[in-house]
Amino acid sequence: MHRTGWIAAGLIVSAAAVFGELADKLAPAPEHPAIEYFNYLKRPPRDPVAQLSRKIEQGTLQLDFAPDMGYLRSLLEALHVPIESQMAVFSKTSLQSERVEPANPRTIFFNDTVSVAWMRGGFIEMASLDPEQGVIFYTLQQQFQQKPQLLRRDDCLRCHLSDDTLGVPGMMARSRYTAPDGMPKLLLGGFNTDHRSPMEERWGGWYVTGKAGPAGHMGNTMVDGDEPDTATHPARYPESLQGKFDTSAYLSPYSDIVALLVFNHQVRMTDLIIRVGWEARAAPAAKLRDAAKELVDYMLFVDEAPLAGRIQGTSGFAAKFAAEGPADSHGRGLRQLDLEKRLMRYPCSYMIYTPAFDSLPAAARTAIYQRMWQILSGEEKSAKYARLSPADRQAIVEILRATKPGLPAYFR
Fold first, then answer.
1. Does residue 32 sit within a domain?
2. Is residue 214 reached through a cis peptide bond, with omega within 30 degrees of 0 on the bond before it?
3. Is residue 343 part of a domain?
4. Considering the entire predicted model, what is its pTM?
5. Burial letters for 255-289: b for 16+ Cβ neighbours within 10 Å, e otherwise?
6. Which one-letter DSSP state was computed for residue 3?
7. Is 296 inside any structural domain?
8. Which of 44, 215, 299, 412 is most buried per CB count within 10 Å?
9. DSSP state of 305
10. CB-based contacts of 278, cutoff 8 Å, min separation 6
């Protein structure tokens, strides 16, 4: 998010005022008649935070305020976001960067459709996935109100609508070389992170708890000088964050490595789903086919960077995540984790179950399912798909048959 003023829910904002010249370069643009991202009156948002806001306004739900963490715990419960998903960022690379430092990290919690960020002394930030419009951003001030205001923040799109988000309002995760005071070392560059990223490029500026195998990563390290090799390397695999800052002031003493791995996958998967939906509503069919191919490759983890050695988290996130099913009659599901050679036991994204996927225009879902079937049936012979073994393909098809409503007949 970018540091500018508030924009309350319901206020229609000119795209030109928010983006300047950027809006003209995006295709389709947010103000396209088929999209109308800013037309809140014609297209009321249906994302989880918008739904929660309506319940608060109608008086059917209340958020509890606590002296230490304000609305945080109550908000997470209302949005069904697990505390075990906590990740901690100590680099100054966000809306409230002036408050963030290694002794006061920004924590992020997430589920499949919403992320919530909190730090001591600041306000709460939310990124919430609308089934059609993309990610919508909100803030919640940490002062008690009878009806807390979840304020829409379209100004966040100054950062969250770019090439890094595939040209749609979306998510991104970055890895930065970071100084001991939390300032990113911009001259040293950095990395956008998803499941294709090598482990050794991940999580610069983030705290990481848990075992990562022999490859290592950039998490927990700080760079004193002007070269990456001046980084300090604390305990390789910390069990918790105790001793790095006052963890008693936070909901959890962990920044779980498994949560980080899942979040890295989910960030780009979210943007791809949004992008394909926008293309289907506003762009030529040929462009849609290309977008569907890119999405399916990512959905099936075709270019995933391999894991080397057993990954072990510390917060209990792995068990919590896997238990949320669905599963077939053999107990197999797309949320089951591997964590030794790859992220998922069955390499097909659980994001196929999200409302955003189900809300894709029929043409987009048709293109996606056709491409999935070409690969999973073995019709696609390209060498890059060889990493999907016949057993993997069969298991994915069988799981989808049992758990995914609306699957085309040719999957049967």
1. no
2. no
3. yes
4. 0.91
5. bbbbbbbbbbbbbbbbbbbbbbbbbbbbbeeeebe
6. S
7. yes
8. 299
9. P
10. 28, 32, 34, 35, 134, 168
* Euclidean distance between CA atoms 254 and 209, whole angstroms: 6
Largest CA distance in the chain: 60
Q: Give Cα 242 distance to the centre of its chain.
A: 26
Going by pLDDT thresholds of 50, 70 and 90, the confidence category of residue 13 is very low
Q: Residue 129's pLDDT is what?
A: 98
104: left (phi over 0), alpha (psi -120 to 50) or beta: beta
Q: Please, what sign has the CA dihedral across residues 352, 72, 138, 116? A: negative
Full residue range of the structural domain in which residue 407 is found: 258-411
Residue 190 lies in a domain: no
Place of tokens 């977008």: 291
**Taking the CA of residue 264 as centre, how many other CA atoms within 13 Å lie in the half-sphere pointing to its CB?**
26
Residue 20 has pLDDT above 90, yes or no: no
To the nearest 10°, the Cα dihedral for 51, 52, 58, 63? 180
pLDDT in tens, 273-299: 999 999 999 876 777 888 899 999 999
* Contacts with 36 (C-beta within 8 Å, 6 or more apart), sequence order: 30, 42, 43
Q: For 73-160, list the strands marked E by DSSP.
A: 87-89, 106-110, 114-118, 124-130, 134-140, 151-152
Report the C-alpha gap between 285 and 278 in whole angstroms. Answer: 12
Cα 123 from Cα 141, distance rounded (Å): 5
Relative to beta strand 231-232, strand 222-223 is antiparallel
CA-CA distance, 1 to 31, in Å (whole number)?
A: 20
Query: DSSP letter string over 23-36?
Result: HHHSSS-TTSTTT-
Number of domains making up the chain: 1
